[in-house]
């Protein structure tokens, strides 16, 4: 995707809102210009000598009109430069060069912009103007980011960061962090980008900088969009739009609308996407925003290509390639070339698609951006499939899946979660402090209006007396407590042991949570990515029916494992919620066991394993039948996993005592060593492959233990290597109070 970050205005330096001069307002489209023309005309008619105040006003105009009218901003900046050169006013000259350089790189005139910034930097160094020097370095960093020279961009931005930290300019620091984040985002390093975006956002929120906050919400939305977390991306874009509402920052609003259009494009809502993109295109054309034009022509071309409007799509995409090549915008050029490849693939013109995909891939590798490389790999896979080169196509498809997996790195997801919690906490903390400050002020006002100084002293004295009396009483109580400490010492020690045990269990719970997140990220991504890739190939009709049939068994096997794991996991997670109600009823043990045995009879038969229901009829228990089904399902599938041809699995039942029923799942499989059996019900994932190399997560037995204990039962295992394994658990006959909470 192209660079769709918001380009901020370079602020004017020490300027006012009183203006003078004349032709500076020629062609201005803003309604309040006429109110200033008279001042400029009077100054021109009198032919008064140019002074520093007039130059500062010109530079301030250039800064103010950049967001709504870059052409006028350039005009005023040029006027400021000309006037400053005449009277050798160095600070005004540097400020004017900074404004014209900003417009030049925005318009794609990077060489001229470099000249402007270099001259401004030399002047600011002579004047020891750290603020101006920092703004020049930031502008150069933005320009080289646009030109995909990320190494040089970082050099300039880090120089600016050092200056801003030195002068403690918080607003400039927030902008600085944002621009460094943009460089890492452009390089495809989403994790690093998030670090800098949130550094900037914490500052912007802390000091109520609405403009920088809006820009950073937009940039974080881009990271979420790259990770395909589209609902959250749209939430961040909406936050940015809310903050920009009512401003004249048309370029920023157009950029956010473009980003929303790209999310809709990714979600295949092409008509809605075209609406957002077309409105952004009008703004980009009016402001001659070269970067915006490149990306918008590419996005619109992709929308029309997917709607079957091939000729129109190619026209837009060719225009995007031409503009990006002319202005040497490598990022946009790669994006446009891959877009052309996409359009030709949809038209089944695979030879043309291959040429553009190869060119786009070469630029993507040069950029090092994971998202662009992934899109190039996907289009090459489709192109080669269309050309009948299936081995190469599968290789690129595998590369695409690996690159997409890297984009959705767990580290980035965890950082997003962590930073959002921190941001919410900081916001709440500030709100509480403000409320406390308001309450304190109100209290002080009441005290001042209602009580005299003598009354306050009286209250203080009375309070001291009360405190002294209370302290004396507390002291007496403390002495009595100390006298009983020796008697209670044993109880305290027992409580400490219990507390240590709870702490250990809490640590186990945290480890279990981390493992669950890791398992979900890895175990679910592979089968879903495989299924998506297979459907992409099926949609493009680039594989034969026979090839499809050969792929199906492997995909089904992964999906069957994933589905079974999700059923168990979702039921267990639901059982951990505070709102979960455990439905304890009296049920027939035989009916529950018969249902699960029948469900897995075919699976056992396929492995040559005998599955026997040995539960006696008429045996009833009082528990949650759904929980017991989950436990039985896990124990039976676990037994099938570790048995082989000729082995037997029996499900037996009986009375343990007058109040509990015992259910056993016994197999004659491979068994396990005692040290392995001791780890089964602990929060450690140590799953082994089955007799037919079946995969597992190692979490099923943890869920079984939790569900059985919630039903007021117990579970254990007996096993011997080479002989077999027996899992057994008890459940009450009469309903007992059931605790509902998190895993103990």
TrEMBL record:
First-level EC class: transferase
Top-rank taxon, per record: Bacteria
Membrane-spanning parts: 453-472
Any one Pfam family match given in the protein's UniProt record, by short name: HATPase_c
Coiled-coil ranges (or none): none
PROSITE patterns linked: HIS_KIN (PS50109), TPR (PS50005)
TPR repeats: 134-167, 174-207, 214-247
KW Cell membrane (keyword) present: no
A molecular function GO annotation: phosphorelay sensor kinase activity
Signal peptide: 1-26
Enzyme Commission number(s) from the entry: 2.7.13.3
Domain Histidine kinase intervals: 519-735
Keywords, sorted A to Z: Kinase, Membrane, Phosphoprotein, Signal, TPR repeat, Transferase, Transmembrane, Transmembrane helix, Two-component regulatory system
Catalysis performed (reactions): ATP + protein L-histidine = ADP + protein N-phospho-L-histidine
InterPro entries: HATPase_C_sf, HATPase_dom, His_kinase_dom, HisK_dim/P_dom, HisK_dim/P_sf, Sensor_HK_Regulatory, Sig_transdc_His_kin-like_C, TPR-like_helical_dom_sf
Protein name as annotated: histidine kinase
Protein source organism: Mucilaginibacter pedocola
